[in-house]
Amino acid sequence: MTQGDTAVRKKLIALKDELAALSEISEDARAPVTLDQQSVGRLSRMDAMQMQAMAQAAERQRNHAIQKAEAAIHRLDEGEYGYCLECGEKIAATRLEIDPSAPLCIRCASGAETRG
Ligand SMILES: [Zn+2]
Prior knowledge:
Layout: H1 3-25, H2 27-30, H3 45-78, H4 93-98, H5 106-115
Bound molecules: zinc ion.
């Protein structure tokens, strides 16, 4: 294992921990909306439901990001980290710096977006 791998692994684990912590903090916000809930305060039920929906969407994104980070750690273990899952080309270092869990090279990632 190279020095770079260790740094990336640390980064990915830190990212995962951060996401998991955020997920825990926001657990209350995702709880089912009930009437006469004291914590809701002056917010109307509609507002509360909207906030809950947003919290749930954020949670889905977090779970997805956690899975991505876990997959990237797995690829590190397999020695496949840094290579695009789709075309097998090396993913640009600058791209991995921004998103260490990126599974695709920029070309495949943008292609996937335009394909929908
Ligand atoms: Zn690719």
